[in-house]
Design goal:
alpha+beta; 17% helix; 6-stranded antiparallel beta sheet; Thiol Ester Dehydrase, Chain A; globular
């Protein structure tokens, strides 16, 4: 098995995102943007990007928006709701926003759009914020 190249995912190493080929574009306070290039090995039986793949990259991009560029913050997904509007037939752009980040919970929403701007999927998610403690794991 070939190990994918390591990519910097806004200060983190995430092997699954490297395997999927997700490209991190930008992150800032309460927002993040990534791109998933279309590849045949990411598709379902119809040749569209698999819904599970889209959910995985949405989960990462939503959590990146919740971190807001602070790699020392960890996020654990509590729940995520995804609605699919159209098949993913091209490169996909994933944009996410953090709507509210409290002391222990963050609420985010995001969208997946095709290269032509068509809305492919949208999601909302809730994350448990995990702060690293000095001397902790």
């Amino acid at each position: 098995m070939t190990t994918p190249a390591t990519t910097d995912y806004f200060g983190l190493t995430i092997p699954l995102m490297s395997l999927l080929g997700l490209v991190p574009e930008r992150v800032g306070p309460d927002q993040a943007r990534t791109v998933l290039p279309w590849r045949a090995d990411l598709t379902n039986s119809r040749g569209d990007i698999h819904g599970g793949t889209m959910m995985a990259v949405l989960d990462f991009t939503l959590s990146a928006a919740a971190r807001g560029g602070e790699p020392g913050l960890g996020m654990a997904t509590i729940d995520m709701t995804t609605s699919f509007m159209a098949p993913g037939t091209t490169d996909l752009v994933i944009e996410a926003r953090c709507l509210r980040r409290g002391a222990s919970i963050a609420f985010c929403e995001g969208e997946v759009r095709g290269a032509d701007g068509e809305l492919v999927a949208k999601a909302s998610a809730t994350f448990k914020i995990i702060r690293r403690r000095p001397g902790g794991d």
